[in-house]
Design goal:
Length: 107
């Protein structure tokens, strides 16, 4: 089992993150309130991406990335990244269209 400890950006509280292969996939857990509520959390997303911001100590982060590579977790994180990028492009395109509409309405 891989283990990490990270510090909360906002409260300074320490959370423990563990990752372990299971028969069904990978159990990738965090002790923060968000994870306890059944949500994904930025602590795990950061580590999965190799981002060590807030990392206090723990195993090699590259080992975590090796564990999740090719998994459903990695595939869905990639999907979210693609959707976030698409949403940003659409937001920019909408803002541009609104500017053009305002200009067009000036005659
Ligand atoms: Zn967390």
């Amino acid at each position: 089992m891989l283990r990490y400890r990270v510090r909360s950006d906002s409260t300074g509280e320490i959370y423990e993150i563990t990752a372990q292969a299971t028969q069904a996939g990978i159990r990738f857990a965090c002790t923060c309130a968000g994870a306890a509520s059944g949500l994904h959390c930025k602590h795990r997303l950061r580590l999965a991406a190799g981002n060590t911001k807030g990392l206090v100590d723990g195993d090699d982060v590259a080992a975590l990335q090796d564990l999740i590579r090719g998994s459903v977790i990695a595939a869905v994180i990639d999907e979210i990244d693609r959707l976030d990028a698409e949403a940003a492009r659409m937001k920019a395109a909408t803002a541009d269209a609104k500017r053009r509409l305002a200009r067009a309405m000036m005659g």
